[in-house]
Amino acid sequence: MSGFMSDDLECQVIQVLSGYLRVDRRTIKSDSRLVEDLCVDSVGVVEIVISINEAFGIDLPDADVTAWRTVGDICCLVRKCKWG
C-alpha cells in the first residue's frame, strides 16, 4: 500500500474524530492517546466506532476495538477491515 493511501486514510479518520470530539483536526495526531489526550470515555468509543463504520462502510470487530489506545490504532484497524 502506498504512503498516499495511508496518509489519506489517517486524514479521513482524524476528520471523523474531530467532528465527533469537536476539536480542531490539526490538534489530533496519529500518536494522540484516546483517553489521556482526547478525553474519550467508553461511551465515546462506542460513538466513534459507529461514526467510523458509517464513514468507511465497514464493521469494526468489537474485540479489536478494545485494543485501541491511539488514533494510529484506529487507523490500523480501519485499514485492516477495509483492505484486509
Automatic annotation (TrEMBL):
Phosphoprotein is among the record's keywords: yes
Descriptive protein name: Carrier domain-containing protein
Molecular function per GO: acyl binding; acyl carrier activity
Top-level taxon: Bacteria
Organism lineage: Bacteria, Pseudomonadati, Pseudomonadota, Gammaproteobacteria, Pseudomonadales
Residue stretches making up the Carrier domain: 7-82
GO biological process terms on file: lipid A biosynthetic process
Any Pfam family the entry gives: PP-binding
Coiled-coil spans in chain: none
GO CC terms: cytosol; membrane
Keyword Phosphoprotein: yes
SUPFAM superfamilies associated with the record: ACP-like
Keywords associated with the record: Phosphopantetheine, Phosphoprotein
